[in-house]
Structures are given as structure tokens and as C-alpha cells.
Design goal:
Layout: H1 4-7, H2 11-16, E1 18-29, E2 32-42, E3 45-49, H3 57-72, E4 82-84, E5 87-89, H4 94-107, E6 112-116, H5 122-140, E7 146-150, H6 157-167, E8 172-176, H7 182-189, E9 196-198, H8 200-203, E10 218-221, H9 223-226, H10 229-238, E11 243-245, H11 252-264, E12 294-296, H12 304-312, H13 316-329
Parallel strand pairs: 5-6, 6-7, 7-8, 8-9, 9-10, 10-11
Antiparallel strand pairs: 1-2, 2-3, 4-12
Helix pairs in contact: 3-13, 4-5, 6-7, 10-11
């Protein structure tokens, strides 16, 4: 639960301590070319408020709670000092996927790769996954590298069943959120022999979800969307399946919240989805990138030149947009 200091905060004081930012991506990721948000400075450090445009004010309130916990609250002590992470391959063509996978394996040491699927063409999805499998088997040796795929709820049941029957040939660890609803996930699970992970059904729910065993084998938890580190640890404790900690296309400062959650979990059986720093062409701090397949558990702040550059990429209209989003989310922080 948030401490007294968090409850005593005034929105105007927080706005004065907030810096809007814009960071370009190396390539389009889920329709995003530039990642925007706000960094908030407090006595505990920096927090990040960066809800996507389709998040309601209520959902943005949870993101604001996470940012305030980071900047004015406290994180639990870590039980590990590094986190194994997956690399991520956007919905790019097969040639680009091959290059990104080689970079992730050879330069970053990743042995688990998450591949985005759910594009308009199943053939394109299969070519991307097949290419990643080929690179992993060639570079690491057959059976060593791990592939997980993420459809971001793009498929209906029939399309998902057809896709997964083909993609299962590439030895998948799991498919993340193949369909939008719990009912679709439950129906699909009876049609295919692939492990499932639940994401959107958890983080977009108006109420805390504590049971997904009927629709998934794994739960993906994104701390920024759930209200921060303490809320994520509570959710992991309450859920009836193992969890994977994942980021939310955060800057390297924001990504430290997800790292803190992964570091504090008693059990962390899977690689965490925290390799998204490699998607950015610029950052606000020293980039938090995998080395030997792991991220360090760290707490840092933005570097002033990089922060000023990120601030100055925003027009005044976009900066005003972010200030307005924070004000709109304010009544919904802490579930209030």
C-alpha cells in the first residue's frame, strides 16, 4: 500500500517535478515510431508516466501510481542482482528478423527471443518465426534457443488455431495472448497443443485478476500498467500460474521499475521481457541493454543532456497533452 508521503502529494507539485519526453525508436513497433511520456523526479529517484494513447484515465492512474512509487515511495529489496531477459523481434520482414536475432544472440547474449506475430499475413508471421528459429539453431545449436510469440490479441479463434498449428512446428515456449477475451482463450486452448501466456486480460482488467489457470499456463505482468513494483509482487503472489515480468516500451529509467519487480520476486522461472531497450534509437539515460543475456539490477537517473534533448523533441502542444494526461489520471491513482 502507498505510504503517507504518497497520499499527501499535490498534483501541481508533481507537475513541476515532471519532464515530458520523446524518444525515437529504431523501427516502428506496434505502430509507434516515437515513445512519449513524462519522467517525474522525487526524493526516491525518478519514475516514468507513459500510458499509451488507448489507455483510459483509470488505467493511466495505475501507471501514475507506478511512477509515484518510484519517485516518492520505496521498492522492496532485491533477491538477485541480474535478470535473464528475452530479446524482442517486431513484426518485420524475415531478412530484418534474421539480422535482429543475430544481433540479440551474438552481441547481447540472449537465448530467448519473443517474436511479434498476428500480422495480416500468416505467411509473413511464419517466415519471421522460421527465420528466428534458423538463426538460433545455427548460432547456438539445435534445441538451445527459445522462441516465444506474442499476438497481442490480434486473432479470432479460427485464425489463431490455424496459425498455431503451423507455428508450433518451430518449438514454441508459449504464445502470448493469442485472442482478446478469456472465452476465446479458453476455447482455443482446447484446439491446439501450445502453452499460453495471458497479458491483456490481466493488465486491461478493471479489477485485479487472480486466476488465469483456466486460460493460460503463464501470466505476463507489466509493472507500469499494474501500479508499480509492490502491486506487481502482490499480483504474482495471488495468481495461480507462474509469471513473466515484462516492460511496457519504457525508457531505460522507466524500465528500472520492471527490473526492480523481477529482482524482488521470490521465484523467476522464465526469462523476463525486459530487452526492449534495444528498440530505442535514443534514450534518457545510459541504455539498459542485455549483456550475456542478462540485465543488471540498477537504480539510476536520466543524464541531463539526453533528458533535455528528449524534452526538446516534443512540441509545446504534445508537452501540454502529457500534462493534461497526468491531471486526468490523478484522481485514479491508488485506485481512488
Amino acid at each position: 500500500m502507498p505510504g503517507p508521503l504518497l497520499h499527501e502529494l499535490d498534483v501541481q507539485d508533481v507537475l513541476q517535478a515532471a519532464v515530458p519526453f520523446a524518444l525515437p525508436l529504431r523501427r516502428t513497433f506496434r505502430g509507434v515510431d516515437v515513445r512519449e511520456g513524462m519522467l517525474i523526479k522525487g526524493p526516491s529517484g525518478w519514475g516514468e508516466f507513459a500510458p499509451f494513447d488507448d489507455y483510459s484515465d483509470v488505467a493511466a492512474g495505475r501507471w501514475l501510481t507506478s511512477a509515484l512509487e518510484a519517485s516518492f515511495g520505496a521498492w522492496p529489496a532485491p533477491v538477485r542482482n541480474e535478470i535473464e531477459v528475452n530479446a524482442i523481434i517486431p513484426a518485420v520482414d524475415a531478412a530484418d528478423a534474421a539480422g535482429l536475432t543475430r544481433e540479440a544472440v551474438l552481441d547481447r547474449g540472449c537465448r530467448t527471443v519473443k517474436v511479434k506475430v498476428g500480422s495480416a499475413s500468416l505467411g509473413d508471421d511464419e517466415a519471421r518465426v522460421a527465420t528466428v528459429r534458423d538463426v538460433l539453431d545455427t548460432v547456438l545449436g539445435r534445441g538451445i534457443g527459445t522462441i516465444r510469440i506474442d499476438a497481442n490479441a490480434a486473432w479470432d479463434v479460427a485464425t489463431a488455431a490455424r496459425a498455431l498449428r503451423r507455428l508450433a512446428a518451430y518449438d514454441l515456449e508459449y504464445v502470448e495472448q493469442p485472442c482478446r477475451t478469456r472465452e476465446e482463450m479458453r476455447e482455443l486452448r482446447g484446439l491446439v497443443d501450445v502453452a499460453f501466456a495471458a497479458d491483456e486480460v490481466i493488465r486491461t482488467s478493471d479489477r485485479p485478476v487472480t486466476s488465469v489457470a483456466d486460460i493460460a499456463d503463464v501470466a505476463v505482468l507489466k509493472p507500469a500498467t499494474l501500479g508499480g513494483v509492490a502491486a506487481t509482487l502482490q499480483r504474482a503472489h495471488d495468481l495461480d500460474v507462474p509469471v513473466v515480468i515484462s516492460g511496457s516500451l519504457d525508457s531505460s529509467v522507466g524500465l528500472e521499475t520492471a527490473v526492480a519487480a523481477a529482482a524482488a520476486l521470490p521465484d523467476l522461472p522464465f526469462a523476463s521481457g525486459l530487452g526492449t531497450g534495444a528498440l530505442f534509437a535514443a534514450d534518457v539515460a545510459e541504455p539498459l541493454l542485455p549483456s550475456a543475456g542478462v540485465l543488471p539490477v540498477r537504480r539510476t537517473g536520466p543524464e541531463l543532456p539526453a533528458l533535455l534533448a528528449a524534452r526538446d523533441r516534443l512540441t509545446e502542444a504534445r508537452a501540454a497533452h502529457w500534462r493534461a494526461r497526468l491531471v486526468a489520471a490523478w484522481p485514479h491513482r491508488f485506485g481512488s
